[in-house]
Each structure stands twice: as structure tokens, then as C-alpha cells.
């Protein structure tokens, strides 16, 4: 075991039961996510990538198989498994600060310590000065930043992100992607990132896991060989990256 | 055509638009309800003068119809004139009974509404949050809900030791159902993502209830309370008129029986004012406690 946040997905089947009918979405999927890694899950809409993410987060019980976090099977959601959803899920009746300190306070951290943690993570995501704003007073991008801060303030072992930047304009998206990368580098949290955008997956993650809609399982895993010292733009423009992108798109349409 | 018209009257129209915008905003925040009673708004002199003239002409027509004992559809010979009502008011306002009646009505409303709110929110949350409690409670709600509070009057008198208690019970029934149904509705509407987010932040079921479900339902709960307040007055007056010994409803009904027709209208207007004030208070409190919903 090296660090926390190691996930083993073992022959997991996921699906929905309606009466006697079972519709399987994910079929017999196995995957290992190392502690501190950054993995993207991509696939056509309806392939089950979002369902898989929710299952890792403890929100869906697998029909069979198991998902294990640092040696313990995941059965319910909890503070270890931070999630940032595609929809805005900040509590509208709480200010940014009250939202961010919500997790620590549930853990029994005192008000003063929780406030300090909240300030720290609000600063990390670049929202200093907006502590006392209500969510609806913030732009979409700022709300996402606050949601990331709220998830991180719990110091989770894993940060699960379900197409978090899907609804943003390109500029805001790029700025949040950069922030996310620097947050990942400074916190060493294991990130699982669901997206349907190949560029985003390649830009952010070390590994891109492509899920096939037809089989409901992994059709391919692509290592991006990212070099941290290389500037992102240069990395995205390189021939290798273009080649990776082509392969991803090929696998997606297959 | 319209464009050039607007240009010519640009100044005036801008002013109108501004006034309209203001009144709209006031209405949206729920203040229109209380303000509509006195027609007071800072919408300029025009917006004050016209309603004033309208009311004065209404009073003059009323005075004229009663003085000439007009008999057009309505028989005005039995209707007290505005001056008569004013004199009745001056006579009544100095008596202790008038204020005692107001005190009793407000006391009953306050007690019944408070109990109704606590019970209503409790049942509404239970219905929305626990599927087993829903199965147990919902049938009773469905059976009782269509029965108007007034229909309870005979049974209430039999059930409770004093008529005073039976009136409070009837008022409670008036208040409780709108609050139950709106709370239930609010709890049902809580987005599943908010609950999931809270669970992923380490909240247990109790935390989710107090930090997510109830706050989310508060705007709905206040709507239920405003409706419940209206229904509570309705039920209170029915109770007081049928079986009361004090209260503004009793005052109004007694005035009819004692042939003090001026006092009937004094009673009616008093009821209107009291009910406006109590409803206004709910909207006022709502704006104080849910600033994030504005």
C-alpha cells in the first residue's frame, strides 16, 4: 500500500432493477486505480460511466462484484469519497463558507477549526473574498470552484468528478482544468474524472479509460505519458498527444 | 406608430414603467397583499390620488344609495351608510368588549396557528421523508383533508369540554392541512443530487433532514403557512359565529342579532384588517428567514 485512495473495482456489474426486469449498464468491469492517480472515464452517453462513478461513490450498489477502497468494500457514501456533480449542488441556503465547512463540521471538527479549513480550501480554488456569498450570487464557474473546495475540505481519499465542467464556456473550462491540475499536484488525492470530451481527458489525466456502450465494459485503457514539467499547451500540441487523441476517438466510435 | 408614440411620451412612459416595475417587485416579494389594503405605495402622487378618489366615490355612492333607500337587486334600506358605520366605529372603539373580542380572536388564532404549524410541518416532513410513515399517515390525510373545518363544528363541540377549546380545535384544523400538504410537497421536491452531495460529505440521515430537506422545503412551508393562516381565520369566524361567546366573529354575528347593523360592518372591516396583518406578518418573517430564496 502506497498512500491512501487505492481503488480496486472487481468484476462489477451495475444496472437498474424495475420489477423483475434488470437492465445492465456495466458488465463485469475490473479496474485498479492507484493511490494518487488521475484517471478519466470516457465513453458515449449512456455507456454507464456516470453510473460507475456513482457506484464508486457508494450511491449505487453493484448487482455483483465489489469496489474496494484501501482494503475496505465501499457500501455507502461517505466523507472519504468526495463527489463533484455535473449539476450545481451547493446548498443554496448556505454561503460559500458554510457550504465548504459543512463536511468538516459533520465529522465533528469544531466551528473554529472548520472555518480555518474552509478558508484554506476557498483560497486553494481561488475564491477568496467570496466566502459570504450565497451560491446564486456566483457564476457557474465559481460555483464549480466552491463545489471542489467543499469536496476537498473533507480531505477525501478520492475525488470523483462527474462531467463537472460540461456546461462551461471554453475559457472558463480551461481555467478550471488548470486549477484542478494544480490542486491534484498539491493534494495527491486520487481523482476519477468522467467526461465525454477526449481533449479534456487527455489534457488532465494520466490514464484514459474508454468504456464501450455495446459491451458495458472497458474497451481500452490509454496511458497519456504526461510529463509534469512540460507546459500544458505544448503537451496538447505534440505529435504523440495528437496520436493519442486519434486512437481515443477511434476507440470511441468503434 | 407605437414606437413614435412611445418616443413622444417617453418621459411619462418611462415613469410608468418604473412605477410598474416597483409594484411588480413589491408583489413578487409578497408585500402587495398587505399593501393592497391601504393602497399605500411610493409610486408617485398619481398612484396615490387615483385609488383615493376611487374609494371616496365608492363611499359617496354607498352613502347616496343608502340614503335614498335604493332597491336595485340589493335592498339598501337595511344597509348602514358609511357615516353610520363611522359613528358605530367611534362608539365601539372605546368599549372594552370590542378590544376583548379582538384579543380573544387573536389569542385563538395565535394558539391554533402555532399548534397547526408545528403539527403540520412535523406531519408534512414525516410524509415526505419516510416511506413507512407515509403509508401509515397518508390515508388519514386523504380522508380528513376534503372535510372543510366548518363541517367539524358540531363534532368539535361534542368532543371538547368547552366551546372555547372547540373553536381553537376548528381553527387548528383550518390551519393544519394547507401546512401539511405544502410541507409534504416541498420535501418531495428536494433534488436527489443535493441529498447525494450531503451524503458524500459525510452527513447521516438526520443531518440530511435538518441541513438539506427542511431548509429546502422552507419556502414551501411558508406558502403553506400563509394559506393556513387564511384558512384558520375562515374556520375561526365560523366557529365564533356558531358557538362563540367572545371574539370578533361573535361580535359581528351578535351585532346582527341585536340589530346593530353599523357594527356588522365594523366587525367585517376589523376581521379584514386583522387577517391582513397576520398574513403580512408571515411574509415578513419569510423574508427575514430565507434571504437566499429572494
TrEMBL record, chain A:
One molecular function GO term is: ATP binding
Q: Cite the Pfam families for this sequence.
A: ABC_tran
Asked whether the UniProt record includes ATP-binding among its keywords, one would answer yes
Keywords associated with the record: ATP-binding, Nucleotide-binding, Transport
* Organism superkingdom: Bacteria
Residue span, ABC transporter domain? 7-238
Q: SUPFAM superfamilies from the entry?
A: P-loop containing nucleoside triphosphate hydrolases
Q: Which family does it belong to?
A: Belongs to the ABC transporter superfamily.
Q: Please identify the protein, giving its name as recorded.
A: ATP-binding cassette domain-containing protein
The species this protein was found in: Acidithiobacillus ferrianus
TrEMBL record, chain B:
Its taxonomic path starts at: Bacteria, Pseudomonadati, Pseudomonadota, Acidithiobacillia, Acidithiobacillales
Q: What kind of membrane protein is this, topologically?
A: Multi-pass membrane protein
Spans traversing the lipid bilayer:
45-65, 106-131, 143-161, 167-187, 208-238, 258-285
The family database entries (CDD domains) matched by this protein are listed as: TM_PBP2
Q: Keyword annotations for this protein?
A: Cell membrane, Membrane, Transmembrane, Transmembrane helix, Transport
The record's similarity note reads: Belongs to the binding-protein-dependent transport system permease family.
Gene Ontology CC terms, in alphabetical order: plasma membrane
Residues in ABC transmembrane type-1 domain copies: 102-282
Protein name as it appears in the record:
ABC transporter permease subunit
Source species, domain of life? Bacteria
Q: What Pfam families does the entry give?
A: BPD_transp_1
Q: Gene3D superfamilies attached here?
A: MetI-like
Query: PANTHER family, from UniProt?
Result: ABC TRANSPORTER PERMEASE PROTEIN MJ0413-RELATED, ALKANE SULFONATE ABC TRANSPORTER-RELATED, MEMBRANE SUBUNIT
Location within or outside the cell: Cell membrane
* Keyword DNA-binding applies: no
Q: Which GO terms describe its biological process?
A: transmembrane transport
Amino acid at each position: 500500500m502506497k498512500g491512501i485512495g487505492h481503488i480496486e473495482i472487481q468484476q462489477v456489474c451495475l444496472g437498474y432493477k424495475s420489477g423483475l426486469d434488470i437492465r445492465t449498464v456495466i458488465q463485469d468491469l475490473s479496474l485498479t486505480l492507484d493511490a494518487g492517480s488521475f484517471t478519466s472515464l470516457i465513453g458515449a452517453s449512456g455507456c454507464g460511466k456516470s453510473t460507475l462513478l456513482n457506484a464508486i461513490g457508494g450511491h449505487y450498489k453493484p448487482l455483483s462484484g465489489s469496489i474496494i477502497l484501501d482494503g475496505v468494500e465501499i457500501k455507502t457514501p461517505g466523507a472519504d469519497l468526495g463527489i463533484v456533480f455535473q449539476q450545481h449542488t451547493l446548498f443554496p441556503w448556505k454561503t460559500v463558507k458554510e457550504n465548504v465547512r459543512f463536511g468538516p463540521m459533520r465529522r465533528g471538527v469544531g466551528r473554529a477549526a472548520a472555518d480555518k479549513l474552509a478558508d484554506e480550501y476557498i483560497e486553494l480554488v481561488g475564491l477568496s473574498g467570496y466566502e459570504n456569498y450565497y451560491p446564486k450570487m456566483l457564476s457557474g464557474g465559481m460555483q464549480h470552484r466552491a463545489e471542489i473546495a467543499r469536496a476537498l475540505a473533507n480531505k477525501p481519499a478520492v475525488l470523483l468528478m462527474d462531467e463537472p465542467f460540461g456546461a462551461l464556456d471554453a475559457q472558463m473550462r480551461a481555467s478550471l482544468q488548470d486549477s484542478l491540475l494544480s490542486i491534484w499536484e498539491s493534494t495527491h488525492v486520487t481523482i476519477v474524472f468522467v467526461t465525454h470530451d477526449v481533449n479534456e481527458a487527455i489534457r488532465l489525466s494520466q490514464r484514459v479509460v474508454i468504456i464501450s456502450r455495446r459491451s458495458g465494459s472497458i474497451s481500452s485503457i490509454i496511458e497519456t505519458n504526461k510529463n509534469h514539467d512540460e507546459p500544458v499547451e505544448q503537451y496538447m500540441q505534440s505529435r504523440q498527444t495528437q496520436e493519442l487523441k486519434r486512437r481515443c476517438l477511434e476507440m470511441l466510435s468503434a | 406608430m407605437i414606437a413614435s408614440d412611445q418616443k413622444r411620451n417617453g418621459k411619462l412612459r418611462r415613469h410608468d414603467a418604473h412605477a410598474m416595475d416597483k409594484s411588480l417587485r413589491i408583489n413578487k416579494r409578497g408585500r402587495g397583499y398587505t399593501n393592497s389594503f391601504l393602497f399605500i405605495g411610493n409610486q408617485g402622487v398619481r398612484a396615490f390620488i387615483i385609488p383615493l378618489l376611487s374609494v371616496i366615490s365608492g363611499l359617496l355612492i354607498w352613502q347616496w344609495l343608502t340614503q335614498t333607500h335604493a332597491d336595485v337587486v340589493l335592498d339598501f334600506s337595511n344597509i348602514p351608510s358609511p357615516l353610520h358605520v363611522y359613528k358605530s366605529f367611534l362608539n365601539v372603539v372605546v368599549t372594552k368588549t370590542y378590544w376583548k373580542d379582538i384579543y380573544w380572536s387573536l389569542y385563538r388564532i395565535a394558539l391554533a396557528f402555532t399548534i397547526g404549524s408545528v403539527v403540520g410541518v412535523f406531519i408534512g416532513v414525516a410524509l415526505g421523508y419516510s416511506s413507512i410513515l407515509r403509508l401509515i399517515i397518508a390515508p388519514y390525510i386523504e380522508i380528513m383533508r376534503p372535510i372543510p373545518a366548518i363541517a367539524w363544528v358540531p363534532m368539535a363541540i361534542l368532543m371538547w369540554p368547552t366551546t372555547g377549546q372547540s373553536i381553537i380545535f376548528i381553527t387548528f384544523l383550518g390551519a393544519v392541512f394547507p401546512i401539511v400538504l405544502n410541507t409534504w410537497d416541498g420535501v418531495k421536491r428536494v433534488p436527489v443530487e443535493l441529498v447525494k452531495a450531503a451524503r458524500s460529505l459525510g452527513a447521516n440521515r438526520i443531518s440530511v433532514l435538518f441541513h438539506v430537506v427542511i431548509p429546502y422545503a422552507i419556502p414551501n412551508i411558508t406558502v403553506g403557512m400563509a394559506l393556513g393562516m387564511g384558512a384558520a381565520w375562515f374556520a375561526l369566524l365560523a366557529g365564533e359565529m356558531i358557538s362563540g361567546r367572545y371574539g370578533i366573529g361573535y361580535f359581528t354575528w351578535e351585532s346582527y342579532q341585536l340589530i346593530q347593523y353599523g357594527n356588522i360592518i365594523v366587525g367585517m372591516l376589523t376581521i379584514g384588517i386583522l387577517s391582513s396583518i397576520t398574513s403580512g406578518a408571515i411574509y415578513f418573517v419569510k423574508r427575514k428567514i430565507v434571504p437566499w430564496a429572494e
